[in-house]
Specification:
Belongs to the carbon-nitrogen hydrolase superfamily. NIT1/NIT2 family. The chain is 26% helix and 25% strand. It is of the alpha/beta class and 267 residues long. The protein has 7 helices and 14 strands. It has one domain: Nitrilase/N-carbamoyl-D-aminoacid amidohydrolase. A 6-stranded mixed sheet has the order 5-4-3-2-1-14.
Length: 267
């Protein structure tokens, strides 16, 4: 399976409309990939809190239209990162969008853990409440976003729901880059999943971004890692390695605390 992580540069020198058009072009250039991933809040920037309200859009707004067309034109599964969504009641959410190769919206995930410690995203946006997985022909995706990466119970829930590949778009700051790669590897090892974590480059709202998008296998080995600048990180991986790893080292069956253990195979 081939994935392309689009580590876009996000900064205030480029308009939202221009960045939306550029993202669409980048997606179309990935024709031949199976899965394409964009970062978190790439239209506005994850730390550009003052822009969330101005650029919030309905679930099927202009970004949806652009990403649906791009996925269809490229013939790829597209995780289009996340947008500031304005719900019907006016509440803002940090919402990820996933498209099938037909261009149909296959899933939407509202970020559960909001960053900011009683300011920024934490007070400007509502919290999602649903775990979301997406069935692809080759694997089952589990959806999470940025700060979610620090909460392992969410990922256990995704594994119990059948996830084999965890996709994490982010706008992670450079000053905590070490945590970004460490946590991506930890979530892969403890859940025996692939982790595809796609961040942003550039500086927005005065916050330099970490970049360093990363793909990790179920043993915690880094298959590919980007640098700090804008980059397309393309990687081939074998989804069958998830089942093989879990059979070779069946740690998940020994869970005793927290969420229910996965059922044991029939004798």
């Amino acid at each position: 399976m081939r994935a392309s992580l689009l580590q876009m540069r996000v900064d205030g020198s480029e308009s939202v409309e221009r960045r939306r058009a550029r993202a669409s072009a980048l997606v179309r250039e990935q024709a031949g990939a199976d899965l394409v991933v964009l970062p978190e809040l790439w239209t506005t920037g994850a730390f550009a809190f003052d822009d969330f309200d101005a650029w919030a859009e309905p679930l099927k707004g202009p970004t949806h239209e652009a990403m649906s067309e791009a996925a269809r034109d490229a013939g790829v599964w597209l995780h289009a990162g996340s947008i500031p969504e304005r719900a019907d009641d006016g509440t803002l959410f940090n919402t990820s969008l996933v498209y099938a190769p037909s261009g149909d919206l296959a899933a939407a995930y509202r970020k559960i853990h909001r960053f900011g410690f009683d300011k920024g995203e934490a007070v400007l946006m509502g919290a999602g409440g649903d775990l979301v997985t997406v069935e692809l022909p080759e694997t089952t995706l589990g959806l999470a976003t940025c700060y979610d990466l620090r909460f392992p119970e969410l990922f256990r829930g995704l594994v119990d729901a059948g996830a084999q590949t965890l996709v994490v778009p982010a706008g992670w700051p450079e000053r905590r880059r070490a945590h970004w790669t460490l946590l991506a590897r930890a979530r892969a090892v403890e859940n025996q999943c692939f982790v595809l974590a796609c961040g942003t480059a550039g500086t927005h709202a005065g916050v330099p971004q970490a970049g360093h998008s990363i793909v990790v296998d179920p043993w915690g080995e880094v298959l590919a890692e980007a640098g700090a600048e804008e980059e397309v990180l393309a990687v081939e991986f074998d989804p069958a390695r998830v089942a093989a790893t879990r059979e070779q080292f069946p740690a998940l069956k020994d869970r005793l605390l927290g969420l229910p253990k996965p059922p044991r195979p029939a004798a």
